Automatic annotation (TrEMBL):
It comes from Guillardia theta (strain CCMP2712) (Cryptophyte). Residues 2-184 form the Thioredoxin domain. GO terms for biological process: cell redox homeostasis; cellular response to oxidative stress; hydrogen peroxide catabolic process. Belongs to the peroxiredoxin family. Prx5 subfamily. Thiol-specific peroxidase that catalyzes the reduction of hydrogen peroxide and organic hydroperoxides to water and alcohols, respectively. Plays a role in cell protection against oxidative stress by detoxifying peroxides. This is Thioredoxin domain-containing protein. One of its GO terms (molecular function) is thioredoxin peroxidase activity. InterPro entries: PRX5-like (IPR037944), Redoxin (IPR013740), Thioredoxin-like_sf (IPR036249), Thioredoxin_domain (IPR013766).
Length: 184
């Protein structure tokens, strides 16, 4: 499991971006490879990871909390806030449209192949428990120039079929408290 001071994994995220040159199409998007370095090198960012798009806690509390506190988090010297889930770009887009609509604040980051999640040591499998397969354990992290500055991992991480899905320390309030205290 990643700890403070560790380098974050260097992976490629398979993203979809609007391509304005694609006219007369119902799907004006194209694939774009986005490297960890594109997102985190020379920047201070917050990433919060969760088990899945469209799931109850993720949709009712986790993502909405970070969206609500986005401006306060940015004022603490954070360049960007990303929500990461082991879902593909299509699912993340539809969930984002349903949750935040305009993508002007929190950005959704698809880790469909689970590469970043595995590299962070946060992979877990909820096959018999929830039918999810491989997903991310719930956590939040401040990444400062490709290194873990601070990480909040929910207690009780189990790599296979965890019954509980705790939500106590990866929330926006905990992250904001840390950022405000680190700013002083």
């Amino acid at each position: 499991m990643a700890k403070e001071g560790d380098a974050v994994p260097s992976v490629v995220f398979k993203c979809r971006v609007r391509d304005n040159s694609m006219t007369n199409t119902a799907n004006p998007f194209t694939w774009k490879d986005v490297k960890s370095e594109d997102l985190f090198k020379g920047k201070r960012v917050v990433v919060f990871a969760l088990p899945g798009a469209f799931t109850p806690t993720c949709s009712s509390t986790h993502l909405p909390g970070y969206e609500k506190h986005y401006d306060e988090i940015k004022k603490c010297g954070v360049d960007e806030v990303y929500c990461l889930s082991v879902n593909d770009a299509f699912v993340m887009r539809q969930w984002g449209l349903a949750q935040v609509g305009n993508f002007k604040k929190v950005k959704l980051l698809p880790d469909g192949a689970c590469l970043f999640t595995r590299g962070m040591g946060m992979s877990c499998v909820w096959d018999s428990e929830r039918g999810f397969g491989e997903r991310s354990w719930r956590y939040s992290v401040v990444i400062n120039d490709m290194k873990v500055e601070k990480i909040f991992v929910e207690a009780g991480q189990v790599n296979q079929n965890s019954g509980p899905d705790p939500f106590e320390v990866s929330d926006a309030g905990t992250m904001l408290g840390y950022l405000q205290s680190a700013k002083k």
